[in-house]
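Hi support team,

I submitted a single chain yesterday and got back a structure, but I'm not sure I'm reading the C-alpha cell output correctly. Could someone confirm the output below corresponds to the sequence I sent? I've pasted both exactly as they appear in my results page.

Thanks,
R.
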Amino acid sequence: MTKKIGFIGAGNMASALAGGLLARGWRPADIALSDASPAQLEAHEASGVITTTDNLRLLEHADVLVLAVKPQVMSAVLKPLAALAQEKRPLVISIAAGIPVASIERWLGGTLPVVRAMPNTPALVQSGATGLFANAATSPGQRAVAESILGAVGLTLWVEDESLIDAVTAVSGSGPAYFFYVMEAMMAAGRELGLDEKTARALTLQTALGSAQMAITADVGPDELRRRVTSPGGTTERAIAAFDDADLKAVFARALKACAARGTELAGQLGSAE
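Hi R., thanks for writing in. Yes, this is the structure output for that exact sequence:
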C-alpha cells in the first residue's frame, strides 16, 4: 500500500525531505505540505505536490504525519488535530528539537505511533545524518516507513532510549556548526599566514570535504588516519601538539555535554505546555 505523507510546516527541512522523496520516485500526489504562510507553499506548487493552509485537511489524507514546525508552536498546532488524529491513527514523525514523545501524544489526545527524528542541516544537500527513536506503539513496518522518509536525505540510525536523542543532538544535530566553526578558524589562520581570502577558503573547504570522504571510505578510524598524516618531527606533529597543549579533546567533550544538557532542559520547558 502506498503511503500518503503530510508535512505540517513547509520550511527548509520539510522541503528537503519532500524533495528527497520525489527524487526517489515518490508520486507528487502522495506528498502534501501545509503551512500558515501561502508564500512558503508557492515554491512547491511546480513540483505537483499537494499544498494547503489547512492542517485538518492535510491530516484527513495522510497516513504519515511529519511535524516540521517550530517547537514553540507545536502544542498550538497539534491540539486542534487531536480528535481526527485519534480517529485516523497516523504514524507521527516529529523533526522538532526538544519535544518529547509523551508531549506529542498528550497534545494529540492519546497514544499514537510516534517517531522522534533529529536530522541535521546537511539534509538540505542530501548528506544528512538523522537519529531516530520510536515509541512502543510504532510497528516494525512503521519504523521502516520512517527510516525511508528520513533516509531520503542521508544516513539514518536508531536509538532505543529516547534520552539518547539529546546525545544525537550533541553529536550530529548541532555537529555541523562545530565543523563550520573549525572552518572559520582555519580560514582566519590561513589569512594571518598570508593567504588571500579566496585561497584560504578554497583550501579549507576542499580539505574538509576530502578528509570527510577519506574517513567515510577508509577501513580504519580517524585516529589511524591522523597518525598516517603525522610524521614524527614533522609539521603536522607540531600542529597536533599545539591542539594537545590546549586540551582540545576536553574542550569538545565539554561542548557536547553542554549541548546535550541544553537539549534536556528544552525538553522539559517545551514539552510542559498544556
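A quick pointer for reading it: Residues 175-263 form a domain with the ProC C-terminal domain-like fold fold (CATH 1.10.3730.10). Let us know if anything else looks off.

Best,
Support desk
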